[in-house]
Write a structure and sequence with these properties.
Length: 229
């Protein structure tokens, strides 16, 4: 697409092409997501059997970050990350597609919330696993405490704060309590301060993310300003 228009626009473009080719479903993958081929075939096979129920709009791997869970059969979840998910394209279109204005971060959760509000079901299949990296994690022991931080690029911190505020505003009944939300932002900032590099730039990006939310700005960082960092 010649330039970075954001993950939402890229996903929408891919789904549009898939529908134009007559596809009923689409498998969404990030560039750093890895499936074993036999596992991927199993994922597709199970998803197709679940899609017989026309209320099922999305089927995701169960332990998406290779975390153990207690379920053995596909079970409903509130949200799933985009990568690894198989979606029903008619549900994608009816729900209003992925929100281009969010650009990246929270795009998947916004989409899943809208799917459920439209009466759809999201399922996770615990028999299917994949490898998918969240950020570029750092870990450090400080005074006997294990500190872990996702260590995202500074620009991602902008979208994480701004878009999480938008989702909290748009879907208050789907959001964490104010105390838990503030705690999450505080822990993000604390992790940056204690163990990440480029602290000032990342904290500044978080601050500008909050400012742009209050200014009702959506789209990419570049669309919001001509400032380069």
């Amino acid at each position: 697409m010649r330039r970075n228009l954001g993950i939402a626009t890229a996903l929408n473009y891919g789904c549009t092409v898939a529908m134009s080719l007559g596809s009923k479903y689409a498998l969404l993958l990030d560039q750093d997501t890895v499936f074993i081929s036999s596992t991927l075939c199993q994922h597709v096979e199970v998803a197709l059997s679940l899609f017989i129920n026309d209320k099922v709009a999305l089927v995701a791997p169960g332990p998406q970050i290779l975390e153990p869970i207690n379920e053995h059969l596909p079970f409903p979840v509130k949200s799933a990350i985009t990568s690894g998910s198989i979606i029903r394209l008619t549900s994608w279109r009816a729900t209003g597609r992925f929100n281009d204005g969010l650009f990246i971060d929270q795009v998947d959760h916004d989409f899943c919330i809208r799917l459920r509000l439209c009466g759809n079901t999201i399922l996770a299949n615990p028999a299917v696993s994949m490898t998918h990296k969240i950020g570029d994690p750092l870990e450090k022991n400080i005074l006997g405490c294990r500190i872990v931080s996702t260590n995202y690029h500074w620009l991602r911190r902008y979208y994480q704060v701004r878009n999480s505020l938008y989702l909290r505003s748009w879907y208050p009944s789907e959001s964490k309590s104010r105390a838990d939300f503030i705690k999450d932002i505080f822990l993000m900032a604390l992790g940056i301060i204690l163990i990440e590099h480029g602290r000032a730039r990342k904290l500044y990006a978080m601050f500008i993310g909050a400012v742009d939310f209050f200014r009702n700005r959506l789209g990419s960082w570049g669309d919001c300003r001509n400032l380069q960092m």
